[in-house]
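Contributing new records

If you add data, match the layout below exactly. Sequence lines come first and carry their own label; structure lines follow with theirs. Keep one chain per record. Anything else will be rejected by the validation script.
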Amino acid sequence: MQHINKYKHLIFSLTLIVGSEFMVSRKKYIVTIIAVVLVTAILTLSLGNMLMVEAGQKVVLSKETYNQMKNMYEKYAKQESVMEIAKRDFLYEADEKKMLEGALEGTLKALGDPYTQFMTKEEFDALMQDTEGSYEGIGVYITASDDNKILIVSPIEDTPAEKAGLKTGDKIIRINGTEYTAEQIDQAVKIMKGEPGTDVTLTVQRVKEDGTSDISDVVVNREKIKINTIKPAMLEDEIGYIRITTFDMQTEEDFKAAYKELKNQGMKSLVIDLRYNPGGIIESTVGISDMFMGEGIVTYTKTKAGEVDYFKSDKNAEDIPIVLLVNEGSASASEIMAGAMKDTQRATLVGTKTFGKGIVQRVQRFGNEGEGIKMTVSEYFTPNGINIHGIGIEPDMEITLSEDAKGYGAEYYDTDNQLQKAVEILKEKMNQ
């Protein structure tokens, strides 16, 4: 795999995995140290110098320096004044650190991007830990809905969320009786996380088949969650099956091991299941795509400044027929793989249109106390130059999962009509 870029990026399909979102590349992320206290120091110095100049004291400043300091003071004076007033007049104790964190959080929230956020040290450390595939919580992928609610993209298999009956498309209205909107998604995640063995009550809105909504309380018992992102199986007629639940730091290695084992069992064709895969690390999805694509572009990203980053595959490729299963829960990094395989006609896509997240977040340290920032920094494109953000990827063969299906995946093969169609297509390819 050839990778030409300045940074290691993340593809976040959602704001967070509850109990975990997840997914950072630790190979080489940027460390940015910005001492917040420096801002206050500069403001103080700026004001002090201006007063001394006006009082006739012998302080010499260049006009350029003076104007820079004056502009900085005018820019941040309101924030500093509000904090000073709060510390002086607020009835209760004013925690300066929390006020500063709140100001930084609000600054990024004002951008109006649900994927951009300020993180405290605890939140940043949790994000780093989540990339390793284990965390404490309920096990559900969430994002912001169009109507400013907390939308469940998908529950994670074999987690408390799935066991409690939470489903894709559910909207979380209240947590433990308190209402939360998409603007409060970070706070909501903190509440849903917790010690294993403890309960959290979610008030969930679900749209029924007739179009009406039903609101009910769901009690979820938190657990220590370990995610195995690769689930392989051997199907009929030497057809292999590998489901990828998400792309974390271990996924590429685990996929290659599963693929090798299936080859040893006589696999002649392969179904790769990306249904309800919300995304993850770019390098992971590119590495797996590289196994099958041959030399070319897997994806490329473009920043506001026009900087382009290419993620390429090498000439080595496994010569095996492939069907890729996708649906509305396939997002972000999984869409990179789906788009690359479709554009290069390396695989047949079966299922329903994907989620449609075509933007990239970069995670970086911020401050001298371990805080962090997750920020949308670029958009990504398929090999044919298509940006799928807000659009999604249409499958080559559209087929909706049957209402009679008891589930999806190899263990539900008897009722999983999408998987059955994938097998049918591969049989036809092998007989050609």
